[in-house]
Write a structure and sequence with these properties.
The complex is a heterodimer of chains A (754) and B (178). Chain A is an alpha+beta fold and 754 residues long. Chain A is 54% helix and 17% strand. Chain A folds into five domains: 160 residues, no CATH class; 136 residues, PAS domain (Beta-Lactamase, 2-Layer Sandwich), CATH 3.30.450.20; 101 residues, PAS domain (Beta-Lactamase); 69 residues; 155 residues, Heat Shock Protein 90. In chain A, a hairpin with a 5-residue loop joins strand 16 and strand 17. The chains are: A alpha+beta (754), B alpha+beta (178).
Chain lengths: 754, 178
């Protein structure tokens, strides 16, 4: 329980922490979006891959493998980084004994354990399946099949090529070199036509070999051609010309082929020799088209594709293995990250709640936690915020109530002192401090030590029986007397705490009943005065008349007797007059009327009254000084009664200085009475001060000065200051006595301004 | 068992890569009329792997990076001039013929067809007088060297770190005399 002190200032609660931006890694929407984008890319690849030739095997062995390797290496680095970072972080958190560190570590370890075993198993089994499957692609029956198909295709091609070659060589041998050298078409064309009639297909072209200059390479010049009409479109003469030229130069038969739109052109060229010299070239062309050609091409292509797969088996395995490895790494990274993410999502709100609870417990009631989600944890956070807000409201209400009560206690005229269960002073309001003459240093000290002062000794029995004796409550009226004053207090000491429970402390309440007692005394004296006036004044007149009659009757008596009678009756008459004056004063005090208040100028009253002393003080050395503040507010007062007050105080001061005819003091000091006025705007009170430089008033007598029939002069009725006190009280003011500086006494009257 | 097989596969891949690294290129620098040429042969570059790749019908190429360089004692050697020569080979399984296309810096130099694989090997691995520099910027009596690196594509090996692997290389130092 926090101890409250009336004198301790309130500490303002710290300001709420500013809201922080949520990072990407803690934003489920952004994470979901990123996952969707990745899934979209994968789906696009899945649908686009079969529709493009960019993913053919040789492309995979280059660009794709490079890309996959890059991704895998990046993922390995990322995995190592994520694992190392978080392991280090978890280790540091455990070393620092941060809350939920062990929980987070366990959660991440569980997620990793749950994923790493199946992921690695999938990787290994998948690798084995890929390896064994790729071997089965190239099984012996399949290989034999494609090789046989390739052989059949090559047989088709080579057979046709052999036919074309044989045709070219046969024609080269059968054509007359002379006719070719002279380009005699009448000889050559019938022979070619006869050959075409036998073969009924293909095309035959004749070239004549010429040499432009001695030493220059020979050239083949086209002479004529004979062939089926459909061949003319696919003749590709440039290719035939190049072939003829090569044969003319090399002198050896050659064969070539040209790819055309609907198939393949097989060309064979053979030299025509005359005496061992090449004089011409025969180029035979046959088209390999139609269904047979297509089948042969398809078989050859199938063989090539099979061989390509076989050749690229290792890169293809690598492609699949790398893909598996990439997926495994992605799973591991995702598991690690997801474990951390889940742990963070779970522990962070709880951790924030724990920290928030500690902060609220420490008094930071304006703390608010930002909910990260709308799930149950979010609801919990909202509930916490609501609780903190209600706590704050309740605290503010209690605080306001506490301040209100403190204000009341501070302003109350009743003194209140609270004590702890172990007897220490907890609080002390202003009135108690004033009544008991204590200050703030008493707070926290044991009551026995605080109240051990000799003038507070009357409190000890009460404390002994209540606070220290733990015996309920006690009410008592006591008098605290010191050298300076005497205070009458009504003291009520009460134990705090419910019945049957250990006491939680005590509270001691002090009521200053001194004015009440004074008033009671004044009332009693007024009653006495009224009775005295009534009982004494009545017989005085007959006594005086009787004494005067004796004087008159003994006027003719012998001188001795007459002198005796006159002396006695004169004494009787004098004393009766004195008694009458005394009784009149008593009667005046007893029958003093209430003041008739009206706004008046206190300065004018003071200066007007002091003018009366101008003649009285001429024979002495006493000086009456005025220091009247100009412009002070008017005061609601009974002018005559206030004049009486001022006269009584000035008379009292003159008496204190030794009387109106007193001279200078033994030390040459000039007896002086000073009358001054002032105004305090803060309190709205007008002050009238009458000071002298006489012997002053002992501190012990100051509280008694205003009691009736109390006098330090040994003469007079002792009613002067009692009348002053009563008039001032009835005007709503106060009168106090203090020491004047450098010596003497001063009476200060405070009256409310009109 | 599965783990051992995976390990063996990895080792085999690494060994095949090491075999490819063994190919050697013989380089002969030539200086004629102040210009620097390089002739080189790399018969080992036409390896069994390349041969199988060609005969499978894959478009196979041997790429040679020819560089004229100057040694440096304190820093990396400086490349003064370079040329890229490529021999692209395509085999037709139906006709049994090879089409060999030779390119220098992306420009086709020649394209020949043959049914003889010896010709293919010769055309793909022997290059004469590849021009590197016209001599400008070369110091008379300066020490230089020609480095030739060769690489065959498509690659038939698989390693997780595929960068910076040449299938063969050769170097020849010379003094530039003008």
């Amino acid at each position: 329980m926090t101890e409250l002190s009336l004198l301790e200032p309130d500490t303002p609660p710290p300001a709420a922490a500013p809201r922080r931006r949520r990072p990407f890694t803690d934003n489920p929407r952004l994470i979901g979006l990123a996952v969707l984008i990745l899934l979209g890319i994968l789906l696009a690849l899945f649908f686009l891959a079969p529709r493009t030739d960019q993913l053919r095997p040789e492309y995979i062995s280059e660009a794709v493998l490079y890309a996959l390797s890059s991704v895998c290496l990046a993922l390995i680095v990322a995995l190592v980084f994520v694992l190392a970072r978080n392991l280090l972080k978890l280790w540091v958190e455990q070393k620092r004994a941060l809350p939920f560190a062990r929980f987070r570590a366990k959660l991440v370890a569980a997620m990793l354990a749950m994923t790493i075993v199946p992921a690695v198993l999938v990787l290994l089994i998948g690798s084995e399946i890929i390896t064994s499957s790729s071997k089965r692609w190239f099984s012996t029956p399949a290989e034999e099949l494609v090789h046989t198909a390739r052989d059949m295709a090559q047989i088709v091609y080579s057979d046709r090529a052999a036919i074309v070659t044989a045709r070219a060589e046969r024609l080269a041998l059968s054509l007359p070199p002379d006719a070719l050298g002279t380009a005699d078409l009448t000889v050559l064309q019938p022979r070619l036509a006869a050959d075409l009639a036998v073969t009924s297909s293909g095309l035959v072209e004749l070239y004549r070999v010429v040499t432009s200059a001695p030493g220059a390479p020979p050239a083949a010049v086209f002479v004529t051609s004979v062939g089926e009409s459909s061949m003319s479109q696919n003749r590709a003469p440039a290719s035939a010309d190049r072939l003829a030229t090569r044969v003319a130069v090399s002198g050896r038969a050659e064969q070539t082929q040209d790819q055309v739109q609907d198939g393949l052109l097989i060309r064979a060229a053979a030299p025509v020799r005359a005496s061992g010299v090449v004089v011409g070239v025969v180029v035979a062309t046959e088209a390999l088209t139609g269904k047979l050609s297509e089948d042969a091409r398809r078989m050859a292509d199938a063989f090539s594709q099979y061989q390509q797969l076989s050749v690229l088996r290792v890169p293809l395995q690598g492609f699949y293995l790398t893909s598996f490895l990439m997926v495994t790494l992605l799973i591991l990274i995702s598991a690690t990250w997801f474990g951390l993410f889940i742990a963070k999502r779970i522990t962070r709100p709880v951790q924030m709640l724990a920290e928030g609870a500690r902060a609220v417990g420490a008094g930071q009631l304006d703390l608010r936690i930002e909910p990260d989600s709308t799930d149950e944890l979010g609801s919990l956070v909202e509930s916490f915020n609501t609780m903190a807000a209600e706590l704050r409201t309740s605290h503010e209400r209690l605080d306001a109530r506490r301040r209100y009560i403190e204000t009341i206690l501070e302003r109350a005229a009743t003194g209140v002192v609270s004590l702890s269960a172990d007897g220490r002073v907890l609080t002390l309001n202003r009135a108690a401090a004033s009544l008991l003459g204590l200050d703030d240093t008493a707070i926290g000290k044991p009551a026995t030590e605080v109240f051990a002062r000799h003038d507070l000794a009357a409190l000890q029995p009460i404390l002994d029986t209540t606070v220290l004796g733990k015996s309920g409550s006690r009410v008592e009226e006591i008098t605290l007397a010191s050298d300076e004053r005497e205070v009458h207090l009504a003291v009520a000491a009460t134990m705090l705490g419910a019945e049957g429970r250990p006491p939680e402390g005590a509270v001691v309440v002090f009521d200053d009943v001194t004015p009440l007692i004074r008033a009671e005394r004044v009332a009693a004296w007024r009653d006495v005065a009224r009775r005295l006036a009534h009982e004494i004044k009545n017989p005085l007149t007959p006594i005086q008349l009787s004494a005067e009659r004796l004087q008159r009757n003994f006027a003719t008596a012998p001188p001795n007797a007459r002198a005796l009678v006159e002396e006695c009756t004169a004494a009787i008459i004098t004393e009766v007059e004195a008694l009458k004056g005394l009784v009149d004063e008593f009667a005046q005090f007893a029958r003093m009327r209430g003041p008739k208040l009206a706004a008046a100028d206190l300065n004018f009253l003071a200066s007007d009254t002091l003018r009366l002393y101008a003649g009285v003080l001429q024979q002495g050395a006493i000086k009456v000084a005025q220091d009247l503040a100009p412009g002070i507010p008017r005061v609601r007062m009974d002018v005559e009664q206030m004049r009486q007050v001022l006269i009584n105080l000035v008379d009292n001061a003159i008496d204190a200085l030794g009387g109106a005819s007193v001279g200078l003091g033994p030390d040459g000091r000039e007896p002086r009475v000073a009358v001054s006025t002032s105004f305090d705007p803060a309190t709205g009170m007008v002050r009238l001060t009458v000071a002298d430089n006489g012997p002053g008033v002992p501190a012990a007598d100051r509280d008694k000065l205003f009691l009736p029939y109390y006098s330090t002069k040994g003469r007079g009725s002792g009613l002067g200051l009692a009348i002053v006190g009563r008039i001032i009280t009835e005007h709503g003011g106060t009168v106090t006595v203090t020491d004047a500086q450098p010596r003497g006494a001063q009476f200060m009257i405070d009256l409310p301004a009109a | 068992m599965i783990r051992r097989r995976a390990l063996m596969t990895g080792l085999a891949v690494l060994l095949s890569a090491a075999t490819l690294m063994a190919a050697d290129v013989r380089v002969t620098p030539l200086i004629a009329e102040g210009q620097v040429f390089a002739s080189f042969t790399a018969p080992d570059a036409y390896s069994q792997d390349v041969r199988e790749s060609v005969q499978s019908g894959l478009a196979t190429s041997l790429t040679f990076w020819v560089e004229l360089r100057q040694s440096s004692l304190v820093w990396f050697d400086r490349t003064l001039a370079s040329a890229t020569v490529t021999a692209a080979i395509k085999y037709d399984a139906l006709t049994g013929s090879f089409q060999v296309t030779r390119m220098a810096d992306g420009q086709v130099q020649s394209s020949d067809r043959t049914a003889r694989e010896e010709d293919v090997k010769k055309w793909a691995t022997e290059f004469e007088r590849v021009k590197l520099s016209n001599g400008d910027g070369l110091e008379p009596n300066g020490e230089y060297y020609v480095r030739v690196r060769v690489r065959a594509t498509p690659r038939r090996n698989f390693i997780l770190w595929p960068w910076g692997r040449d299938d063969g290389a050769g170097r020849a130092d010379f003094t530039f005399i003008r």
